[in-house]
Amino acid sequence: MDFNPLRYLAIGDSLTVGVGVLFLDPGFVEYYRGMSQQILKKSVFCKKYARSGATTEDVLKMLHSPSVTEAVNCADIITITAGGDDLINAAKEFLINKNEESVSHAINQSLKNYSKIIERIRHLDKQDQYILRLTNLYNPFPGIPIADETIKAFNSSINRFGLEMNVKVADLYSVFKRNERALLSKKGGVHPNSEGYYQMALALSRLGYSP
Q1: pLDDT single digits (tens) 15-25
Q2: What pTM, to 2 d.p., does this model score?
Q3: Given the DSSP bridges, would you call strands 131-135 and 167-170 parallel, antiparallel or unpaired?
Q4: Which domains does the chain have, with CATH numbers?
Q5: Which of 19, 63, 80, 145 has the most crowded CB, counting CB atoms within 10 A?
């Protein structure tokens, strides 16, 4: 009997929700929990706070709600997916006003929010006995050059958070690059399919579990 289970908290956008697979099919959260249990030889309890369309600002707001605050306090493993919707919203704005600054502003704003998110978690999780796993962004529109440039710019900044204590960033960009057809859902083509979510979980799991 495992009397000392680990607590896993997943926060984020539609990727954490698991959009793109059939209802009740596992997304990356469920796959990652299973992999973590196998590797760590411990039970892992999971809580999920996520909604489709959530931006980095929405995730930051989530972290100020009492139930999420309490969950962060107890969590040993935390994953966050955010940023994709910030860029999608900026791209829509760019198509209307043709102002490239709206895209660079969105990148800067979402990175500021990410800094605050990490700071908030560090402030709440007093023990320092937790790992925080972020994901960079894959490109669901490989045929659009400006999309690739924008995502690369975002990723080069977000990858730097991996230098912070307890934080590592999974490289989803490389996982999905040239594998879009195999890993993205046929429905909409923006979210991963079941294999895509499995590969996401694998990328997170390969980051290890120290400390």
Answers
A1: 999 999 988 89
A2: 0.94
A3: parallel
A4: 6-205 (3.40.50.1110)
A5: 80
